[in-house]
Write a structure and sequence with these properties.
By secondary structure, the chain is an alpha/beta fold. It has 2 domains: 161 residues, Medium-chain alcohol dehydrogenases, catalytic domain (Quinone Oxidoreductase, Chain A, domain 1), CATH 3.90.180.10; 150 residues, Rossmann fold (3-Layer(aba) Sandwich), CATH 3.40.50. The protein contains 9 helices and 16 strands.
């Protein structure tokens, strides 16, 4: 068994712990920055110096103590999530010192992980942080949604909510690559809607903060919508169903409008969806990991030739990770929300 290490690996690290479960919207005091000793490596383990970590809306649900598709964060323990880092010590024959890996022990500066749970990545293929965004589960979510859940067909009109966010900004571009005739995105505020048009190639951009979302969508899609990618729920889903064409398709990816326990003021008309013979289908990206190799092969080429453009909102340092999560829940990010750790 390999047993290699960088000179004098650290003996301690810092982590973000869940200090309290939120009541409604999280606040800074729900988190704690904690220093702790690193355990000795066991056979088959590696020590990773994390360089980037992902911050995602689904993490809000894990702050609550209730059953879901993924276990809640433990009170008084470190949070976790996707991260990228450099291996600085190894007791694995498969992953050696110097490798760049992705893994699920984010929210800390160093992580001891089983090598079997880490995935080596090629930093020559793309910048490492892209493997948390366009080449990670973010991009895979958009790809699976528009190829498997609500397939885009040539000539379709596609509507994307949270279109300036991590999934939405990729989804709009993928819809074009898959043959959509017209791609419409919604975002909050004129700065983000301008980015949809100028940077991400959307044909129309709706500012939901300006009001009358239904009227804006009707003007942007006078012939109706064939595919809707929903990351918001609430009013967005209601309006999308109203605009949906017969046999329209909806991918239910998220519902951020209700993540803090708010009750949506406008509920979708599911009977209307039934009369349109619409398809509304939920998805968990973990069910589509077998598509990863296919997707990365395509997306890396799209990144290289400019077909796929990305942007990031980056917070600096582990101590800013809670602020990054609070920000992503209020729409402070454009593109992928990341924390740079080193």
């Amino acid at each position: 068994m390999a047993n290699t290490a960088a000179a004098e690996p650290p003996t301690h690290t810092r982590e973000i712990h869940l200090a309290a479960r939120p009541d409604g919207a999280p606040v800074a005091t729900d988190f704690a920055l904690v220093e702790r000793a690193l355990p000795e490596l066991a056979d088959g383990q590696i020590l990773v110096r994390n360089t980037w970590m992902s911050v995602d809306p689904y993490m809000r649900g894990r702050m609550d103590d209730k059953a879901s598709y993924i276990a809640p964060f433990e009170l008084g323990a470190a949070l976790d999530g996707s991260a990228i880092g450099e291996v600085i010590a190894s007791r694995s024959a498969e992953i050696t010192v110097g490798a760049t890996v992705s893994h699920f022990a984010g929210w800390r500066e160093h992580a001891v992980v089983d090598a079997a749970t880490a995935t080596p990545i090629d930093p020559e293929l793309a910048a490492p942080q892209h493997f948390l965004g366009a080449l990670g589960t973010t991009g895979l979510t958009a790809y699976a949604a528009l190829t498997e859940i609500a397939p885009v067909r040539p000539g379709d009109t596609v509507f994307v909510s949270a279109a300036a966010g991590a999934v939405g900004s990729v989804a709009g571009q993928l819809a074009k690559a898959l043959g959509a005739k017209r791609v419409i995105g919604s975002a909050g505020g004129p700065v983000k809607t301008r980015k949809l048009l100028d940077e991400f190639g959307f044909d129309a951009a709706l500012d939901y903060r300006a009001g009358d979302l239904a009227g804006q969508l009707a003007q942007a899609a006078p012939e109706g919508v064939d595919v809707y990618l929903d990351s918001v729920g609430g009013e967005h889903l209601k309006v999308a169903i109203e605009a949906l064409n017969q046999h329209g398709r909806i991918a239910l990816v998220g519902a951020i409008s209700g993540y803090n326990g708010d009750t949506a003021r406008q509920q979708p008309d599911l009977y209307l969806a039934a009369t349109k013979e619409a398809s509304l289908r939920g998805m968990l990206v973990t069910s589509y990991f077998p598509l990863f190799a296919e997707y990365i092969g395509k997306a890396a080429a799209w990144l290289a030739d400019g077909t796929l453009r990305t942007t990031e909102t980056v917070y600096e340092g582990l101590d800013q990770a809670p602020a990054a999560l609070l920000g992503v829940l209020t729409g402070a990010n454009t593109g992928k929300m990341l924390v740079r750790l080193g």
